[in-house]
Amino acid sequence: MEKDTIEKICKSAVSKRDLHAKSLTHYMLRAMLAGVYIGFALVLSFTVGQYFYEVHSPATYVMTALFFGVAFILIVYGGGELFTSNTMYLTISAMKKVTSWKETFFIWMTCYGGNFLGILLFTLLLYFSGVFQTIRTDHLLVTVAEKKMTLPTSYLFVRGIFANWLVCLAVWLPLRVKGDTAKIIIMMLLVFTFFTSGYEHSIANLAVFLISFTSPHSEIINLAGFFHNLIPVTLGNIVGGGFFVGVLFFFLNEPINRKEIQTKPVLIASTKVFHNKL
């Protein structure tokens, strides 16, 4: 049913593989762009959300999540390379054997590193802009970072699965519809769903933590909390995008019922002969 979509995914994966092989610099720059785009969207989201947070509005997290989809639109239409969506792309292409697992892991590592460097660059520029240098330690951004760094490991892993399951569906479903308006609405809604639900996205968390580190913050925000969050969340993201979208749709589109379909006419014909003899 989704064979055309899988073909598009594989074609994109091969393009990613070829770019990575021909020019690692170009690929890294595209990965860095994705990190910068996420930084832009996070600043917008938490700036808007802060207005509601200050008056204790129940709509705080809804308004914060509403604008984060901007990051995904920038990445998709702006030519960025995002680690979390690549967990789906490269898993499907590796299972279809148009790329190798060795290439998959190498591209994942490069993309993750590029996303990190892009966020780091954005954070440094943001620091010198002074945008978040006057916030209090109870700012919404800092509060969210503290919560993320203190959640149990099991919670982080499962929330990481849910987050990238939705993010990869935000890539998968637009490939099945026509028109940019429909694609953008689907992307915005699915990203809104994962953000509002409190799920964990490793690259978005990188931006939250790095911006928090360079802004006024409490002692709860530290390197131990940084790794405590990112390790299980990254693994959960790989499972969510690679298995629950990549492997699942690959399996669902394999011709597993071919033998059954071929034997049905034979059974029907045999039944007719049996009845004729009677």
Molecular structure report:
By secondary structure, this protein is mostly helical. The chain has twelve helices and no strands. The chain is globular. The relative contact order is 0.15. Mean pLDDT is 92; it is low at 266-271.
Give me the secondary-structure topology.
Blueprint: H1 3-22, H2 24-54, H3 60-66, H4 69-78, H5 83-95, H6 101-129, H7 140-150, H8 153-172, H9 180-197, H10 202-213, H11 223-252, H12 258-277
Helix pairs in contact: 1-2, 1-5, 2-3, 2-4, 2-6, 2-10, 3-9, 4-9, 5-6, 5-8, 5-11, 6-10, 7-10, 7-11, 8-9, 8-11, 10-11
CATH topology: Glycerol uptake facilitator protein
Number of helices: 12
Mean pLDDT, all residues = 92
What gap, in angstroms, lies between the N and C termini? 41 Å
Helix coverage percent of residues?
A: over 70%
Give helix and strand order, one letter per element, not per position: HHHHHHHHHHHH
CATH architectural designation: Up-down Bundle
Find the structural class using helix and strand composition: mainly alpha
Instruction: Outline the biggest β-sheet.
Output: none
Shape descriptor reads: globular
Number of strands: 0
Radius of gyration: 22 Å
Beta-strand percent range: under 5%
* The number of domains: 1
**Full CATH superfamily name:** Glycerol uptake facilitator protein
Sequence stretches where pLDDT stays below 50 over 5 or more residues: 266-271
What is the class in the CATH system?
Mainly Alpha
